[in-house]
Amino acid sequence: MQIDNFSYQLPDGRQLFDHLTATFEPGKLNILLGVNGVGKTTLLDLIAGVSEQRHLPFTGFPTMQRIAYHMQGAPFTGTATVFETIKMMADLDRPAENFQVDQLPENLQVIAHTRLKDLSGGQRQLVLLAGVCQLERDLYLFDEPESGLDVKVAVAVIDQIKQLVARGKTVIMTTHQFRNLPTENVHVLVLAGQCIAFSGSPAELMAETDAETLEDAYLKTDA
Ligand SMILES: Nc1ncnc2c1ncn2[C@@H]1O[C@H](COP(=O)(O)OP(=O)(O)OP(=O)(O)O)[C@@H](O)[C@H]1O
């Protein structure tokens, strides 16, 4: 999945991307890093085709119907219960499987019959995330999936994402949290200066910056 020499202006005329080239590795967790406002969400929106039609420089990406997109802060309320909501998403792509309560992540089983409108913001985010993971797609996009979640819950969220990768799925995720990130099967892209300033494995980024952790390596980049 490749973006080649892509330039993009915001509606107010600001240049967000300038000759940006990026390769996303299939079957891996692609982690897109960069400071606030650099354009990570905009890039995910463009890949998903939600904001506007994909431009020609985007090649090798699945069609919109084959992409699952967990958007940041998506409004997700209503009178449906946790179980009904996740079952509905499971049934979208795997109607024959008859999704059951015990297939919910453990932390959602106790609130399986609570209505979304009665959940906390973090719990709603967990429901949406679990639903997205039930979809059977070729590419999964997660925009800051652990934001606003307790660190213990965030571990479980990253585990769900790792399970997708273990099943051979391609994931692109933005994050500002380094604590629970895996390093195996991971491809890192650093968005800075209107283009991809680094693309490679966590080990390569750490070697290039002479750092011992991915967080330190990122801090040493010019992002
Ligand atoms: N619809 C829009 N109209 C005008 N500007 C926009 C629009 N959407 C986003 N922007 C601008 O695009 C820039 C990039 O925003 P984006 O949300 O992609 O950044 P980000 O890297 O995901 O940031 P964060 O880490 O804070 O979520 C910001 O300067 C923002 O103001």
Automatic annotation (TrEMBL):
Pfam families: ABC_tran (PF00005)
Sorted UniProt keywords: ATP-binding, Nucleotide-binding, Transport
SUPFAM superfamilies recorded: P-loop containing nucleoside triphosphate hydrolases
Gene Ontology terms, MF aspect: ATP binding
Every ABC transporter domain range: 1-218
InterPro entries: AAA+_ATPase (IPR003593), ABC_transporter-like_ATP-bd (IPR003439), Metal_Ion_Import_ABC (IPR050153), P-loop_NTPase (IPR027417)
Taxonomic superkingdom: Bacteria
Protein name: ATP-binding cassette domain-containing protein
Source species of the chain: Levilactobacillus lanxiensis
Biological classification of the source: Bacteria, Bacillati, Bacillota, Bacilli, Lactobacillales
